[in-house]
Amino acid sequence: MRILLVASAFNSLTQRVYAELTDAGHELDTVCGGGDDAVREAVRRHRPELVVAPMLTTAIPEDVWSRHVCLVVHPGPPGDRGPSALDWAIDGGARRWGVTVLQADAEMDAGDIWATVPFTVPEAGKSDVYRNEAADAAVAAVGLAVHRFASGSHKPSRPEDCGARPVWRPYLRQERRRIDWAADSTDTVLRKLRAADSRPGVLDELLGAQWYLHGGEREDAPRPPGTPGAPGDIVAQRAGAVCRVTRDGAVWIPRLRPRRVPGGPATFKLPAVYALGARLPASVPEVPAPLEQPAEGIAGWSDIRYEEQGDAGFLWFSFPGGAMSTDHCRRLLSAYRHALSRPTRVLVFGSRRDFFSNGIHLAVIEAADDPGAESWANIVAMDDLVEAVLRTTDRLVVSALGGNAAAGGVMLALAADEVWCRDGAVLNPHYRLMGLYGSEFWTYTLPRRVGREAAERMMCEALPLSSPAAARAGLVDRLLPVPAAEFAAEAVRTAARLARTPELDARVAAKAAARARDEAAKPLAEYRAAELAVMRRQFTGPDEPYHALRRAFVRT
Asked: Where would I find the Formyl transferase C-terminal domain in this sequence (predicted)?
């Protein structure tokens, strides 16, 4: 069918719905933002048989929904209404939730129901749940609704027919989100932080200023009796995050965003330690977590962790928003080198769930005194990491994508011998939307995977690929069709089987020989130098589009 996607932004869910409906053979057009007139123009241009809205912050114009069937994805079960559905679910500790596809009507979230799919809510941040469990349910519900519409015989149900009592929940305001550090338990603090992790954050007073707190991780290591620090105090820092005391424990807060000054520029999220800068007392200690979980106890939260099972090693990492700063890249490279020192036959590196990587950290770059210089430092550190993976010839290396990847993050994954991907992840193997040529050895790894013509097309079209489409194109070697919560365990089982295969030694020897042949034909240093020569011009040229595109992306 001809389907028009209407969305307030081409976010992760919109991209996934776009990719999945494209895979199903539908003819799609999209309109993102632009207001009512843009929607009307898109309808006139595309003449859709159906309108699907995966993500909206404003209503579809009445003259559109009254003439066309418009299906709106609502991240709540039947009867749930309001703009903060998933926020309320996580804040309230819901264990089961759902996604409902409704027909647009005069009353928000009150139209006929075309499909609804339930899901289990994990202990994770809202944006993580939205990209994974909620997205899985949304894609299933959209697919079912589109199929039912195409049949021409399905009659949608009214909300009351589903036995659901309508519940209107207003926008979840800061008054409700506010943390009482002296009274709230660690569980309560985590729910509040996770319900607001990406947007809007939790407004709080900290070190003499107002900040939005973004994200929250439990500190499981017990605090010895008499440890200084009252509830709300910062008592430690680790990997750019700060640890704050709660009534009965402590939590790590990865990112902060300063409250916007009236009339001032938009603010954006940064690693907490970076955001606080000189405000953070020198007395707050850096408390690194061991790379490997100690056998005798609890190490506490960390964004990079290494573990082993038999002949397989696993280097797990998770960076907020998938962005990798210069520091992230250097620490991950150090951890990768540690993993190479271990006597394993297979090394898996990746994300247990959610983002694998989206490449360089645009927010840290934007906040730097010299964004061009920080861009350069970041891409060099990223290239160092990718090159280390490419030059690993003594074992089989697997990249495990528990979630989405984009730009340099895709190229990091392609440096491995095999790419395993959760069925449900979305890949964006391009740089063009940020005005960049790209590096991370993409001119070597992408053509060898998909061919030169397909590589150039991917870079030019700049379209998202579903994980099955990426597998068909040659970007992904193995799809793991499991829920997000089960991805890591499935990757561990699969790697353990691979490490036991008798032909593995021959595969490793063959890949070492292939790397030597490729190096003789054209050294990796030549690919790197050619890519970075273009990137240096784009980073340092004051009129390069990268700077305006980066600024708009970070500050939106």
From this structure: 172-258
List the domain boundaries for the chain. 2-168, 178-279, 304-485+505-550
* Mean pLDDT score across all residues of the chain: 95
Q: Where are the alpha helices (DSSP H) in 324-390?
A: 326-340, 362-367, 371-390
Look-up of token digits 């697919």: 143
Which amino acid is present at 538?
Answer: Q
Beta bridge partners of 29: 4
Contact 234, 282 (CB under 8 A): no
Tens digit of each residue's pLDDT (9 = 90 or more) over 297-356: 556 899 999 999 999 999 999 999 999 999 999 999 999 999 999 999 999 999 999 999
Q: How far is CA 122 from the centre of its chain?
A: 16
Query: Buried b vs exposed e over 243-276: b needs ≥16 C-beta within 10 Å?
Result: bbbbeebbbbbbbbbbeeeeeeeebbbbbbbbbb
Q: In CATH, what number does 2-168 get?
A: 3.40.50.170
**Distance from C-alpha of 454 to C-alpha of 346, rounded to nearest angstrom:** 30
Residue 106 identity: A
Q: Give the domain 304-485+505-550 fold.
A: 2-enoyl-CoA Hydratase; Chain A, domain 1 (3.90.226)
CA separation for the pair 439, 527 (Å, rounded): 9
Q: Is the peptide bond before 48 cis (omega within 30 degrees of 0)?
A: no
Integer CA distances (angstroms), 160 to 79, 98, 110, 167, 215, in order = 8, 16, 10, 12, 36
Listed in sequence order, the residues at least 6 apart from 263 whose beta carbon sits closer than 8 Å to its beta carbon are none
178-279: CATH homologous superfamily?
A: Formyl transferase, C-terminal domain (3.10.25.10)
Residue 407 CA from chain centroid, whole number: 12
Q: Sign (positive/negative) of CA torsion 471, 477, 482, 487?
A: negative
pTM value surpassing 0.90 = yes
Q: In 3-state terms, what secondary structure has residue 119?
A: strand
Using DSSP's 3-state secondary structure scheme, residue 262 falls into: coil
Q: Residue 342 CA to chain centroid, in angstroms?
A: 29
Cα 510 to Cα 477: distance, rounded to the nearest angstrom: 18
CA distances for 121 relative to 89, 199, 404, angstroms: 9, 18, 19
Sorted by sequence, the CB contacts under 8 Å of residue 550 that are 6+ apart come out as 362, 365, 366, 371, 434, 435
Smallest Cα–Cα separation from 29: which of 10, 57, 56? Answer: 10
CA-closest candidate to residue 421, choices 358, 486, 359, 468? 468
| CA–CA separation, 82 and 341 (whole Å) | 53
Is the CB of residue 406 less than 8 Å from the CB of residue 428? Answer: yes
- pLDDT at residue 285 is higher than 80: yes
Residue 451: C-alpha distances to residues 44, 339, 390, 455 (Å): 38, 31, 18, 6
